[in-house]
Inverse folding.
């Protein structure tokens, strides 16, 4: 994949297998515009099947991580004959596809958040497997303030924080500090802004050193079992572990542990 920049989305693949994606549409506060969403669909789809990519970091340039949907695009669409219904439907379907591509991606995805993440931008953070944020970062689902409830951001938010905290964000539209976001589970932790990239990349490198097969198996199982009843979750995860135990990397990893040596992964 190498390094690539198309102006609003920069990608850099490191030798460690970390793919660093950077939103860079600062004039629009890294809005999830039609253009940005299409590029995210492409890059996450490509990364999912690229064996060189082991972990994905999603970062952003400028004071906003992402301000969510482009309200100017939405307003312009109201002039269509159907008052924008077809446009809104396609826009939200594409946005939902991006969020689901993150969750279904076999590679762990880490959000690195500086600045503000609001509405669908907050949804983007919540959809990532892990999130680190600068202690100055802030989060909100402020749609209620403009008569448009953050119903799609609610899906990711409600799956990551307790209901009362999610509803408070959704019903008030208030900004939440990075420390509060950590407390309620929206992010893993808040760190000093000057240390954020180093800490995020260190976490990514640690994860990238694991067996890619094991990570893919575990991530898929994590999200799938979370929607099941307790007995079904145990039945399913037990079968996943049986299948996992029969893989090369499990045999190698257990053998290396017993023999007190470093495992040599084949990602299979």
């Amino acid at each position: 994949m190498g390094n690539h920049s198309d102006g609003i989305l920069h990608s850099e693949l490191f030798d460690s297998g970390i793919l660093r994606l950077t939103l860079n549409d600062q004039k629009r506060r890294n809005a999830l515009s039609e253009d940005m969403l299409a590029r995210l669909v492409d890059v996450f789809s490509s990364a999912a099947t690229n064996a060189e990519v082991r972990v994905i970091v999603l970062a952003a340039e400028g004071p906003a991580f992402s301000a969510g949907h482009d309200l100017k695009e939405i307003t312009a669409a109201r002039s269509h004959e159907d008052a924008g219904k077809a446009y809104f439907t396609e826009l939200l379907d594409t946005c939902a596809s991006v969020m689901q591509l993150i969750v279904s991606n076999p590679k762990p995805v880490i959000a690195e958040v500086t600045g503000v993440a609001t509405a669908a931008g907050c949804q983007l953070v919540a959809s990532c497997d892990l999130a680190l944020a600068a202690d100055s970062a802030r989060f909100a689902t402020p749609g209620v303030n403009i008569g448009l409830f953050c119903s799609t951001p609610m899906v990711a938010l409600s799956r990551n924080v307790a209901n009362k905290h999610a509803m408070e964000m959704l019903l008030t539209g208030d900004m939440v500090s990075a420390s509060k976001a950590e407390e309620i589970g929206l992010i893993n932790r808040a760190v000093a802004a000057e240390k954020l990239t180093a800490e995020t990349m260190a976490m990514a490198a640690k994860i990238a050193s694991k067996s890619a097969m094991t990570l893919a198996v575990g991530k898929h199982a994590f999200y799938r079992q979370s929607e099941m009843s307790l007995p079904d979750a145990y039945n399913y995860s037990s079968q996943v572990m049986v299948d996992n135990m029969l893989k090369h990397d499990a045999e190698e990893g257990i053998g290396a542990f017993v023999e007190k040596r470093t495992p040599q992964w084949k990602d299979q």
